[in-house]
Write a structure and sequence with these properties.
The protein is of the alpha+beta class. It has helices at about 20-25, 30-40, 75-85, 130-145, 210-215; strands spanning about 5, 10, 45, 50, 90-100, 105-110, 120, 120-125, 145-160, 165-180, 195-200. The protein contains 5 helices and 11 strands. Strands 5, 6, 7, 8, 9, 10 and 11 form a 7-stranded mixed sheet that branches. A two-stranded antiparallel sheet has the order 1-2. The N and C termini lie far apart (about 105 Å). Keywords: Hydrolase.
C-alpha cells in the first residue's frame, strides 16, 4: 500500500526503492540521499537545496548533519558586494589659489575632463595627508613652486554627471603664497597641462575649469580682506 507524502508522489516498499534507515543516512551514503531527494515533493525545499540534500566536501564524503540548520541558503551578499563595488564613491580633491599680488596661478588643462580649460593646481588627497601637505605636494609636482602660508578657505561638494562614470568630489580650496617670490612656474607635467602663468583676478582667461567657474559665479574671492 502506498503512503502519500505531501503530494502526488509517494514512497513504496517495492524493490525499486528501499527507504534508507537512519543509520544509512547518518553514514553519508550518496546513493541513499540521491534516491531520497528524487522522491521528495518540490515544496519541501530551502533556497536552492533540498532539506535532505547532503552537503559534500571535495572528496564526495558526507560532512555535517543533514538537518536544515546545517544547510547553506542562497547567499546574496557577494552579489550585493559586487554591485556596491561598481557604485562611484566620493573622493577628496585639493585645489590651491597660489596668489601673487592681485594675480592667481592658472594652467591650461590637457585632460579628458575639462580639456583646454584654465584650472588651479591641485589633485587628489592621498592617504595620511593633511590638506596643507597635499596642497604643497601638488603645487610642487605640477609647477615646481614651493609655497607657504597655506590656509584653508572653503569646502565644496561637486557632482559630475556628464561623464560615463559619474563623479562626486569634496573639493578643499586653499590659498598660499610663494615661499620665494622670485620663483618662476615650470610645466613639470606637460601631459596634463600646457603651461602655467599668472592672471589678474579681475580678468581671468576663458574657459575656466568648472569648479573655478562655479566659484566665480557664486562671488567667491580668494584674496584676503584688507
Amino acid at each position: 500500500m502506498a503512503h502519500v507524502l505531501g503530494g502526488p508522489r509517494s514512497l513504496t516498499t517495492s524493490n525499486e526503492f528501499q527507504f534508507p534507515s537512519w543509520k544509512t543516512l547518518s553514514a553519508g551514503s550518496t546513493k541513499s540521499f540521491s534516491q531520497l531527494v528524487s522522491i521528495l515533493p518540490p515544496r519541501l525545499s530551502f533556497g536552492h537545496r533540498n532539506l535532505f540534500e547532503k552537503q559534500l566536501n571535495g572528496d564526495g564524503v558526507g560532512v555535517e548533519s543533514t538537518r536544515a540548520a546545517h544547510l547553506v541558503p542562497i547567499n546574496c551578499t557577494k552579489e550585493k558586494d559586487a554591485a556596491n563595488s561598481e557604485m562611484p564613491v566620493p573622493r577628496v580633491g585639493v585645489l590651491v589659489f597660489v596668489l601673487k599680488g592681485k594675480s592667481v596661478l592658472l594652467g591650461r588643462r590637457r585632460a579628458t575632463i575639462g580639456d583646454s580649460a584654465f584650472a588651479l593646481p591641485g589633485g587628489h588627497l592621498e592617504f595620511g595627508e593633511s590638506f596643507e601637505d597635499c596642497a604643497a605636494r601638488e603645487v610642487k609636482e605640477e609647477t615646481g613652486l614651493d609655497i607657504g602660508k597655506i590656509e584653508i578657505l572653503k569646502v565644496t561638494t561637486n557632482f559630475l554627471h556628464e561623464e560615463p562614470k559619474p563623479s562626486h568630489y569634496m573639493i578643499i580650496l586653499l590659498r598660499a603664497i610663494l615661499a620665494n617670490p622670485d620663483q618662476v612656474p615650470q610645466n613639470i607635467e606637460p601631459d596634463k597641462f600646457d603651461g602655467w602663468d599668472w592672471y589678474e583676478w579681475d580678468s581671468l582667461p576663458k574657459p575656466l575649469f568648472w569648479p573655478l567657474e562655479k566659484l566665480l559665479q557664486d562671488g567667491f574671492n580668494p584674496f584676503p580682506i584688507v
